[in-house]
Every structure is written in structure tokens, then in C-alpha cells.
Design a protein that fits this description.
Blueprint lengths: L8 E5 L7 H11 L3 E5 L2 H6 L2 H8 L2 E2 L7 H15 L3 E6 L5 H5 L8 H24 L3 E11 L13 H23 L2 E7 L13 H11 L7 H12 L10 E4 L10 H12 L1
Parallel strand pairs: 1-2, 1-4, 2-3, 4-5, 5-6, 6-7
Helix pairs in contact: 1-3, 1-9, 4-6, 6-7
Length: about 270
């Protein structure tokens, strides 16, 4: 450990179980010397194991619905009380698509479900930053990170309306990030992670095949949840003070690939047969 976050205070959204990226970030932040508050929606907390993580990291839990301004205001105020000052880092690791869960095809969406997924997955990020900004809750040179996926830029059919949510999430990071940087020297970035075997990710149709495809396409292979956590820690640290408004690819090189030898070999074998 390098004490990269020694003395820093934060809020981590979205830790559900030990497979989630937010869980790994919390573990690594604790190891690097940070103190933080854990938060998730009340229903997600009932489904997950967040109390075990809180005990392991010496953290307090504040339930909050990220679509509720009242809940978010309470979260930020109480976090500052518990942590004894302003916030140095925030992780937004929230995503949900009811259309995906229900098996609704993108061309036949239930728009009530679409709206709910957009509210939870993307608009919540604007709400979180709204509260942090207007309460002047972030320390100068603080860092806000949201997790995304490159379906925001390219077509992955079974990712469904989550692709739209991630595209909006990334736009919010740039737009709100400008004001946070200008006014408070706070940086805002998104990390575009490899497909990862989390509870949310595995809900996507054909996820295992998709995971295997990305592994074969990427020169370094897929980045794990722990490796994503390590990268996130560097974004929270003072080593990346001048990085903001970026969508940072953390995918083993997948995002710059057209085709790989391994994938091409599969097609050649099929043709020759």
C-alpha cells in the first residue's frame, strides 16, 4: 500500500456485494488510508451485504435513494458531520435497467421502465453533483468519478437502454465537470470499464459470450473489478490533479481494437470448414 488516500474523506455509492466494483473501491480506499461513508438505495441494501463491508472498513452507512434530492442532501450533510469536514472523493457506481431485467427489446421498450432506469443510472449523477456543488461540500482538488461503459459510443445490442443512460452520464460529467473545475478546482471523470462479472453486468443477455469476446479482442484481456478499483484510487489521489472532463478507457485496449488475431482465427476456421 502507498497511502495514496491518507487523510482523505469520501462517499462511495453502489457497493452491493464483494463482486461489485464499488465494493473493491471501498476496500482499496480503506487500504490506502481513506475514511468514507457507504451509501446505497434502501432496497439494494436489503439485497446486498453492505454491513459486512462497513465493518471491514470501519465505515458508516447512510441509506439514500439517489433519485431523491432530499435523501442526497441528507447524505451529504451527514457525511460531512461523520467525516469531520469536506469531501475529497466521490464514487458514483449506480446502474439499473428494468427493460433489461424484464427482457424488453430495445425496439419495444416500456417507457416507464426507460424513465426509471434513466433516473437511477444517469440523472442521479447530476443530482449528486448538484447537491455537492451547491452545498460547497467538495474540497479543492477533490475528485468525482462515475463508472460507465463504451456502449455509450458504440452499439452493443443487448446492452439495451443502458447504453443511452451511459451516454447521458458521460455528458453530465463533462458539463458539470466544467463548473466544478472552474469554481472549486474539483475534477470530474468517468471510467469506462471492461465488461465485469457483477450482479448488474451479468443481468445482460448473453453476458458470458460477451465477456469472452472482449477477452479475446483486448490485447491485455479484460480488466477485473479489482484492477478497476486500483485505477479509481489513482483518480482519487493527488497524482491525477489535472485530469478532468475525461472518459477514461480501462478495458485492456478493447476500445481501440478493430479485430484481433484470435477473433480472426475463429472466422478463418469457420470459413475453412
Amino acid at each position: 500500500m502507498y497511502n495514496l488516500l491518507k487523510g482523505k474523506k469520501g462517499i462511495i455509492f453502489g457497493a452491493l456485494d464483494e463482486n461489485s466494483i464499488a465494493w473493491k473501491v471501498a476496500e482499496r480506499a480503506h487500504e490506502e488510508g481513506a475514511t468514507f461513508v457507504l451509501t446505497n438505495a434502501p432496497i439494494a441494501m436489503r439485497m446486498g451485504e453492505i454491513k459486512n463491508l462497513a465493518e471491514k472498513t470501519g465505515s458508516e452507512i447512510i441509506p439514500a435513494d439517489a433519485t431523491s434530492m432530499e435523501d442526497l442532501e441528507n447524505l451529504v450533510e451527514k457525511s460531512m458531520e461523520i467525516l469531520g469536514g469536506k469531501i475529497d472523493f466521490v464514487l458514483h457506481s449506480i446502474g439499473m435497467s428494468i427493460n433489461v431485467r424484464k427482457g424488453n427489446h430495445y425496439t419495444n421498450s416500456n417507457y416507464d421502465f426507460t424513465h426509471k432506469g434513466f433516473d437511477v443510472s444517469a440523472l442521479s449523477f447530476h443530482r449528486v453533483m448538484n447537491v455537492l456543488y451547491n452545498k460547497k461540500a467538495m474540497s479543492n482538488w477533490g475528485s468525482i468519478v462515475a463508472l460507465t461503459y463504451m456502449a455509450a459510443q458504440r452499439v452493443f445490442p443487448d446492452y439495451n437502454d443502458m447504453a443511452d443512460n451511459k451516454a447521458y452520464l458521460e455528458s453530465i460529467a463533462r458539463s458539470f465537470g466544467y463548473y466544478f473545475g472552474r469554481d472549486y478546482k474539483v475534477r470530474v471523470n468517468t471510467i469506462s470499464q471492461s465488461p465485469t462479472q457483477t450482479r448488474a453486468g451479468s443481468g445482460v443477455k448473453g453476458f458470458t459470450g460477451f465477456l469472452n469476446y472482449a477477452e479475446k479482442m483486448s490485447p491485455l484481456g479484460n480488466a477485473s473489478a479489482l484492477e478497476c478499483a486500483d485505477y479509481t484510487i489513482t483518480m482519487f489521489s493527488d497524482l491525477t490533479k489535472m485530469v478532468t472532463l475525461q472518459n477514461l478507457m480501462h478495458d485492456g485496449g478493447f476500445s481501440n481494437m478493430g479485430i484481433s488475431d484470435v477473433i480472426m482465427d475463429d472466422f478463418i476456421d469457420i470459413t475453412e470448414e
